[in-house]
Write a structure and sequence with these properties.
Helices cover about 30% and strands about 10% of the residues. By secondary structure, the protein is of the alpha+beta class. The chain folds into two domains: about 120 residues, Ubiquitin Conjugating Enzyme; about 70 residues, no CATH class. It has a four-stranded antiparallel beta sheet, covered by helices on one side. Strand 1 and strand 2 form a beta hairpin. The longest helix is centred in the first third of the chain and has 21 residues. It is globular and about 55 Å long. It starts with a helix and ends in a 35-residue tail after the last helix.
Length: about 200
C-alpha cells in the first residue's frame, strides 16, 4: 500500500475503532485486523437474520479510499444479494463508490442489506422467486439458521442465533421429512437455489 493510501487507511481505521459501536447500535465489532484486511463481526438487531452473527471481510485496496475495498461475507448465509459461492455481496455503495466513503459506511450498508434483503437486485437465483415465496422468506431463514436440512441442502447452524432462539423459546422445528435427506452431506453451495427451497412445506 502506497504511503498516502496507508495514511488514509490508518486514519479511517482509527475512526472505525472509535465510532463502530455507537454508529451501528452495537451491531458490529472489529474482530481482527491483518495488514489491509479487516474482519468485522455483525449481529443484526432487526430483519430475518436478527441475533445471528456473521463475519464480514473488508480488504482495502492499495489506493484506498480512491477505489473501493473488496468485501465478502465469510459466514454462509441464505440471502438474495449474497452469492453462496464466495460470499460476495451485491451492494450499491460499491458500484457507486466515492472516496468520501469509509469502512463504517460499508459496514452500515451491509447491516442494512441483512435487515432488508432486496429481491429486485438479486445476484443469484433468488431473484426469480415468485412473490408468495418471498413472503415466507423469514420462515425459511429460521430453518437455515437452525441448520436444518432443506431437501438435502444444509447450511451450518449459526451458533449465536441458535443460542438466542433456545433462550427465548423460539427455536424452530424441522419442516421436512428428515429421512429424505439424512444421508446427504452438509453443504452451503447450490447450482440453483430454487431446487432446494422448502416450498411448499409438508
Amino acid at each position: 500500500m502506497a504511503c498516502q493510501g496507508m495514511r488514509n487507511y490508518l486514519k479511517d481505521l482509527r475512526s472505525l475503532y472509535i465510532n463502530i459501536g455507537d454508529s451501528t447500535n452495537e451491531q458490529a465489532i472489529i474482530s481482527s485486523v491483518c495488514g489491509g484486511t479487516l474482519e468485522i463481526l455483525l449481529t443484526p438487531n432487526d430483519g430475518p437474520y436478527a441475533h445471528a452473527t456473521f463475519i464480514l471481510e473488508i480488504a482495502a485496496s492499495d489506493d484506498y479510499p480512491r477505489t473501493c475495498p473488496e468485501i465478502r461475507l465469510l459466514t454462509p448465509i441464505f440471502h438474495p444479494n449474497i452469492n453462496p459461492q464466495g460470499g460476495y455481496i451485491c451492494l450499491s455503495i460499491m458500484d457507486d463508490w466515492n472516496s468520501c466513503y469509509s469502512f463504517l459506511d460499508v459496514i452500515k450498508a451491509v447491516l442494512f442489506l441483512l435487515a432488508n434483503p432486496n429481491f429486485d437486485s438479486a445476484n443469484n437465483s433468488f431473484g426469480s422467486l415468485p412473490p408468495e415465496y418471498r413472503d415466507r422468506f423469514n420462515e425459511v431463514c429460521k430453518q437455515f439458521l437452525a441448520g436444518f436440512p432443506i431437501k438435502g441442502e444444509v447450511y451450518p447452524a449459526n451458533e449465536n442465533w441458535c443460542k438466542w432462539a433456545r433462550a427465548n423459546n423460539c427455536f424452530p422445528v424441522p419442516k421436512l421429512d428428515q429421512n429424505s435427506c439424512e444421508s446427504q452431506p452438509p453443504t452451503h453451495s447450490t447450482s440453483d437455489v430454487r431446487e432446494t427451497l422448502p416450498f411448499p412445506y409438508t
